[in-house]
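assembly run, all chains below
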Amino acid sequence: MIEVKNVCKEFSDVKVLYDISAEFLPGKTNLTIGQSGSGKTVLLKCIAGLHSVTSGDILYDGRSFCAMNEKQRKEIRKEMGMVFQGGALFDSNTVEENVMFPLEMFTRMTFEERRERANECLKRVNIINANKKYPSEISGGMQKRVAIARAIALNPKYLYCDEPNSGLDPVTSIVIDNLIKDITVEYNITTIVNTHDMNSVMEIGDKIIFIYKGRKKWEGTSAEIFSSGVKELDDFVFASERMKKIREMSK
Amino acid sequence: MLKLFYHTGRYFLLLKRVFSRPERWRVFFRQSLREIENIGISSITIVLIISMFMGAVCAIQMAYNLQNPIIPRYLIGLGTRETLLLEFSSTIVALILAGKVGSNIASELGTMRVTEQIDALEMMGVNSACYLVLPKIAAFVFFIPVLTIFSMAIGLLGGYIASFGTVGLTPHDYVVGITSFFRPFYVTYALIKSVVFAFIIATVASYHGYYTSGGALEVGKASTHAVVYSSIVVLMFNLILTKLLL
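ok done. output:
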């Protein structure tokens, strides 16, 4: 479980996150939703340790990340996997090398073992016959799946996905969503997904946290989201005329 | 002024992270070999072409300026050799490589930064500065003496070719000139300078690339800054090293 306790984040004079507290549960797909610029990515990067928090704490199964020294942080990072918005695959490496990379850096596996594990992960995300291709030679959806394969290569306890559906068509988005959901349950990972895609929210959101202008405004499940009574969340969820009509019809 | 201190401080902090123990020596050596190919071997052609022409031009200009009955003609070859050894093959080649290699390093690291590849490395617990920058420094510092030696040899050859058909200079005089009064220390001096320049170019360019923020526009700016600042620092150190070594 990941606990975020009263986290605030400032960049120079700009305050981005205000006193955010939340719990992210293992084996569940925890979603952070909000408009662009609301602070979702900053929160995720604070949780992942890519940004330091200005105040507050982040606990990994009771272990305070903020109190850890560099060596301890390095160790705990091996338990984390992250899928970045653009995939962040290494351009100069092939698909297979990308997935083998964390194994090479942090395990004593032989080359054959690493390749076997990489192929296992790639097969899990349905990437077949693309091992020797470079990231620029595969589609956006495939890049995201390779990024997921790389993220799960070391059997992480915590998985972060920053807008995994951005730039993808609806069908591929659903494939990615389901993959994240399945992997979360299969490996009992604590998964945090940043998204503003309402399809994802409805399909895979076990627990949802709504961030508005750097503040946590609402927390609940996908079933509760339509009856939250929070104006900002309603404005976000029912932003389009079509969604407003659906709401009227459901009433 | 404050900005200068800020960047200098951050540059040395980056160097501190760069010069730490690599995660895996095997990976470090493999990356270094890859960088030798990217940075070093790919620069051979441009260094050879430029050296050939510069050697030729240098010899022709020497011949033009030293056309005097009381000046021995072999001095044209000697002057060409000293110019190439002392200044051209180390400093000018370094400035050319600041453009080619510096912009390459800055744009590569800058692109990795803006596409979150560096974040991905950090996320995995890899010291991204050491993993990405150290092999570049090692490769460039290791390979630049080779480029410098090539430049000297081809520059002298260029001068020799130019000596055919140049008024006031014969190939024989040129050969006598370049083989007279040779001081091996000049080669050492050039190699010391080139190694220092390679370190400056690799680290300054890496600094600008590594700390890029924004998008494609900023990557372009980082690349330009890398070339401009590394060239300035190279010229500053050229003066310092010349004062110290000669």
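Chain B has one domain: 2-19+27-245.

The two ends of chain B are 32 Å apart (CA to CA).

not gonna interpret more than that til we talk
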